[in-house]
């Protein structure tokens, strides 16, 4: 089973455009590195660098860059949705990504399955305020609604000590609990993605 080639795409939803350093990118890249240890080839897109229009359609027109990102999401076996914490919630960029994924509810194959069926999704959250558990729960629900499958231990996060302004990118080393959680997430996500690639969900209806 371990020989089955897999790919992952990380959508990082930082509010900071490139090339500004991003804690969200850092954690997402760490997850991709752990996935690589399981034979998963990964890539990263910082969504704020692209003109992703508001809406719930596949293509909102007028130069909307979501269709190209969507193609990469559908081509990948594993989606890593990474977001910072802003006032206890996912970033507005992450919210827009989830809204655009809503269009997948109208897209099915010839056997009635959503095109996202058989794809695994995990969530990574960083922030110097509380809220990661709630954000992960909200993202899991949205991703499940549009057809992704969530593995066991499919969320990882880092929150700084309360009332202490420090970012993840400023840490000299990755805290052991975060590193071990990243490893567990990657192992379970790769395992589940291989199972789903070899044994598809049944036809609908």
Automatic annotation (TrEMBL):
It comes from the Bacteria. GO terms for molecular function: oxidoreductase activity. Residues 9-153 form the NADPH-dependent FMN reductase-like domain. This is Flavodoxin. It comes from Saccharothrix syringae (Nocardiopsis syringae). The lineage of its organism: Bacteria, Bacillati, Actinomycetota, Actinomycetes, Pseudonocardiales.
């Amino acid at each position: 089973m371990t020989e089955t080639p897999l790919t992952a795409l990380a959508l990082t939803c930082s509010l900071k455009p490139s090339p500004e350093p991003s804690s969200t990118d850092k954690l997402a890249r760490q997850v991709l590195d752990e996935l690589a240890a399981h034979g998963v080839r990964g890539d990263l897109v910082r969504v704020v660098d692209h003109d992703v229009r508001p809406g719930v359609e596949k293509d909102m027109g007028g130069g909307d860059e979501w269709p190209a990102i969507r193609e990469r999401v559908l081509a990948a076996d594993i989606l890593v949705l990474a977001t910072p914490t802003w006032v206890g919630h996912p970033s507005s960029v992450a919210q827009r990504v989830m809204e655009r994924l809503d269009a997948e509810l109208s897209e099915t194959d010839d056997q009635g399955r959503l095109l996202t069926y058989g794809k695994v999704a995990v969530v990574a959250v960083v922030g110097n305020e509380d809220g990661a558990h709630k954000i992960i729960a909200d993202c899991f629900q949205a991703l499940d609604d549009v057809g992704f499958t969530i593995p066991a231990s499919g969320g990882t996060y880092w929150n700084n000590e309360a009332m202490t302004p420090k970012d993840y990118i400023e840490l000299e080393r990755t805290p052991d609990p975060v590193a071990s959680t990243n490893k567990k997430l990657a192992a379970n996500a790769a395992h589940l993605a291989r199972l789903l690639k070899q044994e598809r969900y049944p036809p609908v209806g």
